[in-house]
Amino acid sequence: MQNFTFDSTDGYQLAGSWFPAEGPWGAVLISAGTGIRRQFYARLAEFLSQRGLHVMTYDYRGIGDSRRGSLAGFEADKVMWAERDMTAAWAELEERAKGLPHYWLGHSLGGQLPGLVEGIERADAIASVGTGVGIWWRMLRPFRWFCFFIWYIYMPVTIALLGYAPARAIRQGQDLPAGVARQWSLWCRSKDYFGKYLGRQRLERLAAVRQPWWAVGFTDDPIANRSTIPQMMSFYPNAQVTFDMFTPAELGLQSVGHHGFFRGGCEALWERLIGFFAHAKTRKSKSSHSRKTEQDFANRSGAFFEQGSDRDDSEPSLRGL
Predict the structure, then answer these.
(1) Is residue 316 part of a domain?
(2) 244 in helix, strand or coil?
(3) Contact assessment for residue 88 and residue 14, using Cβ atoms and an 8 Å cutoff
(4) Contact yes or no for 130/218 (Cβ under 8 A)
(5) Range of the domain at 179
(6) CA torsion sign, 163 to 137 to 320 to 234?
(7) Global pTM?
């Protein structure tokens, strides 16, 4: 693993890590959930690199090693993270892995906004884990009441007093720039989530995404659940989505929740993730020599995921919406 820095589209310096593979057949960019440092994804990144995939992780501005001093007055929001930081990270991956297929893996927020990334149309496939809308009253009980406290009391009061959101004080990951927290709060208090805030042009960019997309969720995740994941995917109506919901018992685990996919114990799903990327690579190669219809791919994709399609290390719970 190699740590490095690279510039966002506006020149802000971001921290990244590169996990090189021997004899690579593709490259994966892992985009984090809200307030999660890139080190959280190292276990999965190592696993993928050992199976022939270059992997890049990175910190958004104001998070982890991409934070520069105090967050009070620091300018950042989630759209900025997407259009500047995610875009720059995607360009960095493409530059480092020229000539290879490129894949997007997003955790929660990292799977919400790939449509705002310049160049995402060149992705061979997209996968999202724990990615749903963050509307507070659609969280599972009793977690939704904690969300109510955060969006209506804790965030407004602490931002007004401190100029940033001290998420670490309530064990909710890294402290957040005020703009990130305010935007997050607005989205989570709206029945349309970010639909009423992104604007027509940005929503059209989401709708333009057409790649194969594997959306993964877990029945014990109070955030990305059977209600919130489909609503999120409705912002991507033209993506070729396969949605799988797993129970912890199916994986031999007591719990998975919102973050457990990236810890040890989910290696069987990590292998399926590799299979999904490889399947997309094969399909793209074949498409240059044939005229397979989109419905034909949907049928084949459904067969590939038949096992899961009918299914009813220290990062804490709320982060990643």
Answers:
(1) no
(2) strand
(3) yes
(4) yes
(5) 2-304
(6) negative
(7) 0.89
